[in-house]
Amino acid sequence: MTDGEIQIRVRYAETDRMGLLHHANYLVFFEQARTELLRAVGATYKDMEDQGYLLVLTKAEVKYRWPAHYDDILTIRTHVERITSVRIDHRYEVTCEGRLLAEGSTTLACVDRTGRPQALPDYLRGDLKKPQG
User: The CATH number of the domain where 96 resides is what?
Assistant: First the structure.
């Protein structure tokens, strides 16, 4: 599976004084989308961490195109762009009622408990590369 989609309703606490979704929350939503994509392939961050595999964010980018407001229902689409032996690159699209609000990307690296790079677990590399359907 290389693609996922979740929906999130913008909560009042996530908005700024202008009633707009605060820009930092997009990264939180990206993380939630990645977590659900991982769960869809039968894995969880907790299980991976218990096995000694830690995924750390090494790069994040967001391009804001249109604001989101309190109570909007956002759709976050996640796509796995690339997987190497130690890294996963994701791409995101955030839409509301068909309008593109933001685009983003992140890079995660797999490290051990000392922070040294280590290979991603085989089950993760294999499952994320399988096409849907």
Answer: 3.10.129.10
